[in-house]
Amino acid sequence: MVRLKNVTWLLVTAAVAWEAGKPLVMEEVEVAPPQKHEVRIKVHFTSLCHTDVCFWEAKGQTPLFPRIFGHEAGGVVESVGEGVTDLQSGDHVLTIFTGECGNCRHCHSEESNMCDLLRINTDRGGMIHDGESRFSTNGKPIHHFLGTSTFSEFTVVHSGQVAKINPEAPLDKVCIVSCGLSTGLGATLNVAKPKRGQSVAIFGLGAVGLAAAEGARISGAGRIIGVDLNPNRFEEAKKFGVTEFVNPREHDKPVQQVIIEMTDGGVDRSVECTGSVQAMIQAFECVHEGWGVAVLVGVPRQDDAFRTHPMNFLNERTLKGSFFGNYKPKTDIPGVVEKYMNKELDLDKFITHAVPFSKINEAFDYMSKGECIRCVIDMGA
Ligand SMILES: NC(=O)c1ccc[n+]([C@@H]2O[C@H](COP(=O)([O-])OP(=O)(O)OC[C@H]3O[C@@H](n4cnc5c(N)ncnc54)[C@H](O)[C@@H]3O)[C@@H](O)[C@H]2O)c1
Ligand SMILES: [Zn+2]
Ligand SMILES: [Zn+2]
């Protein structure tokens, strides 16, 4: 890292995606100073999430290149722009793909985390303040991703997308709290809310589903039933407290019926983390009449439609959905980090791989082959 021009511009190394699906290229990139309501962060550890891979592949998404991907990260604030009052240089922080402006009707509501100003926007390539990018190489601007762009030694982020955390928290672990982990964990703890001893079905045992299972374990659920089409997921899921497994491909009956039979009428709670609309319907129809609650987390395809008989609602099954585990990024995420510090939440088992920044493309290989839950990238190595 070299400081340029009155100690305000930085020359750093970033992993730039020049083209869809092509390996990232390590480039010297200029990082502009933070503008109004922005902070510049030295990224210490970042982890790779499926969403990075999806937008890098750009199949079905608006292609926006060159771009710096990355959204799950832990780092330290280097400098702050005008109007930033809640953060200062030296603060330990997590970047979050969706924000909390603190001023809109959602931020004022105790129930919502869907900020009007800073809600996730996958198509935006510049900063909200002026639409410009803070990254450039040889005078050519490079697009941001989710307002975070953490595959860079330094990044500039809106202060509403920055959660200030306990400085004692190890950033190589808590960086994964930024996205997938909190999404699954919060879907169970904040929305499904299983009571001690209750049964919970988790549809989809990827990182988000395993985090939902971790939420069920923390809640003291009695039975945790994992449902996945891929039997390779079952062995790993045992470490997450999943006690029984159902592979819909191994049954002639609809999976909701299999689960209803296994549980004498249905599970108390279910959390869907697949993105498949069939699994969403199954997750709803397998909860018990009278009190069962199903929570949808997976992101469906654009033309999907959820079809179920209205009697399912009349029989007092409840269907809910959750965005980012219903956590408010700035208000609630520091508390999730505290759960790890108190040893209530186990993060270590999610981190199956680690690579130095120079080998970031290997993380994409692990993720594409379905070999890892989370690969943490060490920006200082
Ligand atoms: N709501 C939110 O805020 C939010 C945030 C992040 C991710 N997500 C979504 O959560 C979902 C899970 O993310 P992930 O990273 O864990 O994905 P993943 O691909 O690692 O895991 C999904 C799992 O679901 C399984 N699966 C697919 N179809 C199935 C079916 N019909 N029945 C049973 N299992 C099935 C797959 O085999 C896989 O193991 C994705 O749709 C992702 O887009 C939502
Ligand atoms: Zn807001
Ligand atoms: Zn993510």
From TrEMBL:
Pfam families: ADH_N (PF08240), ADH_zinc_N (PF00107)
EC number(s) from the headed UniProt entry: 1.1.1.1
Main location: cytoplasm
Co-factor requirement: Zn(2+)
GO biological process, one term: formaldehyde catabolic process
Compartment(s) where it occurs, according to its Swiss-Prot or TrEMBL record: Cytoplasm
Signal peptide coordinates: 1-19
One cellular component (GO) term of this entry: cytosol
Domain Enoyl reductase (ER): 21-377
GO molecular function: alcohol dehydrogenase (NAD+) activity; S-(hydroxymethyl)glutathione dehydrogenase [NAD(P)+] activity; zinc ion binding
Domain of life assignment: Eukaryota
Keywords: Cytoplasm, Metal-binding, NAD, Oxidoreductase, Signal, Zinc
Keyword Signal attached: yes
Family matches, as PROSITE patterns: ADH_ZINC (PS00059)
Subunit structure comment from the entry: Homodimer.
Record PANTHER family: ALCOHOL DEHYDROGENASE, ALCOHOL DEHYDROGENASE CLASS-P
Protein family per UniProt: Belongs to the zinc-containing alcohol dehydrogenase family.
Protein name: alcohol dehydrogenase
The species this protein was found in: Brassica carinata (Ethiopian mustard)
Native organism taxonomy: Eukaryota, Viridiplantae, Streptophyta, Embryophyta, Tracheophyta
